[in-house]
Design brief:
The chain is 47% helix and 26% strand. The chain has one domain (2-135): YqgF/RNase H-like domain (Nucleotidyltransferase, domain 5, 2-Layer Sandwich). The protein has helices at residues 37-51, 70-85, 99-109, 114-135, and strands at 2-8, 12-18, 25-32, 53-60, 90-95. It is built from 4 helices and 5 strands.
Length: 136
């Protein structure tokens, strides 16, 4: 059984997953859903079946002062969809403040080119969200 991390965005969702022992988190992929949650849920079905997911952690984009952002409200609606569809899986949110900043710093340190950064940022952010959850 594994834990799945999701960085949920308007057009893309970064996906990260733990190893079977839940010691490490690694990026799995970015799902381009273009605002269509049905596409995202369909792709999540495949991942959940393949990896036997026991918990889903969704990044919650709060303002720096901790208040709910407009994006956080949209994310809460997505979490509700997840809870309805996957009612046997534990679904939680995790503060994701500054994960995108961390992701860009990591990519800058690795000297990843600009085009590739756009493809990777959501997946790397999902890894940071999942690691934060695992460390709390």
């Amino acid at each position: 059984m594994r834990i799945l991390g999701i960085d949920y965005g308007n057009a893309r969702a970064g996906i990260a997953i733990t190893d079977e022992l839940k010691i490490t988190a690694q990026g799995l992929r970015t799902i381009n859903h273009n605002g269509n949650d049905k596409i995202l849920l369909s792709e999540l079905d495949k991942i959940i079946d393949q990896y036997e997911i026991e918990t889903i952690v969704v990044g919650m984009p709060l303002h720096m002062n901790g208040d709910m952002s407009e994006r956080a409200e949209i994310t809460q609606k997505f979490i509700h969809k997840l809870k309805c569809k996957y009612n046997k899986i534990n679904i939680v949110s995790q503060d994701e403040r500054l994960t995108t900043v961390q992701a860009y710093r990591t990519m800058n340190d690795l000297q990843i080119d600009k085009k590739r950064k756009k493809e990777l940022v959501d997946t790397i952010s999902a890894v940071y969200i999942l690691e934060s959850y695992m460390n709390r």
